[in-house]
Amino acid sequence: AFLVPYQWRTYCFPIFFLNIGLSHWILINTLYNYVLSIIIHPGRSKGVGPSKCRTCRTNRPERSHHCRQCGFCVLMMDHHCMWINNCIGYYNYGYFMRTCAFVLVGAVYGTMTMWPEVVAYSNGDSVMFGFDDLPNICLGAWCLSFAVTIGFTILNLWYISLIMSGMTSIEYKQLKAWKGAVSPYDRGSKANLAYAYGVKSGKWSRLLWPCYYVPYNYWTEVNLENIETE
Questions:
Q1: Is residue 81 flagged as an active site residue?
Q2: Sign of the CA dihedral running 146, 151, 153, 156
């Protein structure tokens, strides 16, 4: 509403259309992964596995944990996210991580593209169509984008460090109690990242586009088709 008119009057046509294309690419990828992380079931045990839940009192596969909000054991549970009202688990973990990545990209993009207007506002020579309220809105939007950039930078770095170590946030808390114990699911940093983000056959370019994928099976001794429902 306010940034596009400013860019239309400030930049040349190639730069303007580049910004339009880039912003919509970020928006589509963010919304696609966000919606899928909401609607895709994280994975629920059917009562088969080596361990037993103290709450459900049913068997479950390794890396499963009981979610009090959902009321069942989630496969490879990381946490229950209030922003999507769903658990982050085996089937939607990759979409959640992609959402976090694209939110960060969008926040950085917004912070950078609105910066010239923030400078103009601070110098008292804002050129945003002469409307008095638009520079104020832009300044508020820039502050929000900058805050989101800081927050999601920390969030992404935290999760990437966990992924490269081959563990979820719950497993990190458990292994931390054992003073430096190594995750038995660690297959190397690059392989761990590929598993988490749903990259197969080295096709990392798929992260740039909205796509559906089937997660890797971490458990060679477990047939997920027999014990899990999406």
A1: yes
A2: negative
